[in-house]
Amino acid sequence: MTLTVDLLHQFPDFELRASFQAPPGLTAICGPSGAGKTTLINSLAGTISSNQGYIEINHRVLFDSRQHINLPPQKRRVGYIYQDARLFPHLTVGQNLKLGRWFKKLPAAPEKTDHIIAMLGLSGLTTRRPSTLSGGEKQRVAIGRALLSEPEFILADEPLSSLDLARKLEIIPYFERLRDEMQIPIIYVSHQIEEIDRLATTVLSINGGQLTQ
User: Fold this and answer.
1) How far apart are CA 202 and CA 158, in angstroms?
2) Exposed/middle/buried for 72, CB within 10 Å: 0-12, 13-18, 19+?
3) 18 — phi, psi (to 5°)?
4) HSE of 97 in the Cβ direction (CA atoms, 13 Å)?
5) Tens digits of per-residue pLDDT, 175-200?
6) What is the C-alpha to C-alpha distance for residues 186 and 41, in angstroms, rounded to an integer?
7) Residues 192 and 4 sit within 8 Å (Cβ to Cβ)
8) I need a surface site. Which of 27, 133, 149, 181 has the fewest CB within 10 A?
9) Residues 89-116 pLDDT 10s
10) Model-wide pTM > 0.85
11) Which tens digits make up the pLDDT trace of 112-159?
């Protein structure tokens, strides 16, 4: 399952050009602030629309400017992991985990849910509220929520940037498991060389809106 991307996104004072293929594994996108990293993954997610190009995953077209195809985010089958966990404080961990499936109108999947909960070490946390969790625990819930939405690819926008060193070291092994076990493309944005060196199977560098491998 390979994600194929060829995009042109133009702003009045900035132009993003990106052409690459992301195979199963973890493709890291690195570059300085303002280089276009977040614009790129938001284009992949469908929250912003590029001017030209196409996006395809597993022979399924998500965006094609020539054919006027532009699927909305909920139909792209993408799991998005943000810098902060973005959990709903009034819901339990178990309820937050199920939100991705509810949003995409997917049927309940108890076995898959149990597997993800066990894989991320969340078994003892499902009845707790986000306010009682550590930063690392919240981010594990966010990862689980993304996985339970049954994505064909995952976008992670600097998912460890809000964590201290101890919490980062706690979370990195879970991303290693995702990389090795899920067999889907993971687009991982970071400017931390240590994270990229440990996690990435492919590295793309972006600077001034230009993407190079």
Assistant:
1) 16
2) exposed
3) -145, 125
4) 27
5) 999 899 888 999 999 988 889 999 99
6) 11
7) no
8) 181
9) 999 999 999 887 777 777 777 788 888 8
10) yes
11) 888 889 888 899 899 999 999 998 899 999 999 998 888 999 999 999
Sign of CA dihedral 162, 181, 155, 121: negative
| Residues facing 7 on adjacent strands | 18, 53
Q: How far apart are CA 145 and CA 139, in angstroms?
A: 10
Q: What are phi and psi of 40, to 5 degrees?
A: -65, -50
Going by C-beta distance under 8 Å and a sequence separation of 6 or more, which residues neighbour residue 100?
Answer: 79, 106, 145, 146, 148, 149
- Among 74, 144, 133, 152, which Cα is nearest to 109's? 144
Q: Could you say which DSSP state residue 12 is in?
A: T
Given the structure tokens 């020539």, which residue do they identify? 66
Cα distances from 50 to residues 41, 61, 74, 110, 134, in angstroms, run 11, 14, 17, 37, 37
